[in-house]
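Worked problem 6 (solution included).
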Amino acid sequence: MFSKAILSILFLAILGSIHCDSLPDTPTQSYAYVDLSHFRVEPTDVNFDVEMDGFKDTTLQFTLYAQLHNSELLEYLGYIIREPRTGVILLQEQLTTPVSDPLPIDIQGTFNWETSTTNFEQLLVELYALDRYGYGIQHQATLTIEGIASSRPQIIWVNNPDSVEIPTGSTTLIIPFQAKVTDPDGQETLDRVFIAFENEDGSILVPNPNILTDTGTGLDEVAGDSVFTITFSVNSSNSPQNRTVLYYARDKAGLFSDTLKSSFNIINPYFSINF
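Solution. The predicted structure is:
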């Protein structure tokens, strides 16, 4: 006589050998089971465009279509969204069970997908139905999201004076710092152009970098010419300092340019001594 433990192991082995498309034992060969056909998802391909879509977060809506057969036997109807390479479940939802009908029924469901116009993604959609006998049927479709190709921005040149003498009295000097920045994917893909100052000991002068603009105001002579400008003032309250200027840019895809460096020294004015 088999022990309860052995019987349990045999039961699990048999259960594990039953596949999703296995029919249960029935006394008749005319067993009707739940089935799905004509499954599709729209759209199957999404291609973002720089001019039409720009760089932004967005929500896509996908619609599932299929025909359900023998819905009077249906126990559960739903779908799963997976990451194709790993099989990780990203989303799982149940669809509304249609009215029982022996004739094929058109079913439809929608789901929203949060993404960005710079993302490149593939999604595996699985629609499945289970009947009251434990029989399951499944169909799959692959969705492709093609984001906007994004290259890193490039700093062409930077410009600032190497040194400035500390002025005397009430004089204030306005010092321009400029960078010519382009992006191979188009200037509209640029997000920010930054400037930071590095002290002689390697520390950064302020934790948050300043932002250069290309607005055609102040000492930025022409708006939209890809020359980004910022100004800083130097007056008699400044002390002598030797600093490294760091210029870098970021695009809307979050990609950074290389950092270009220059020197900027604040020095004491030259005094001529007459004997």
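Discussion: Confidence is low (pLDDT under 50) at residues 1-30, 271-275.
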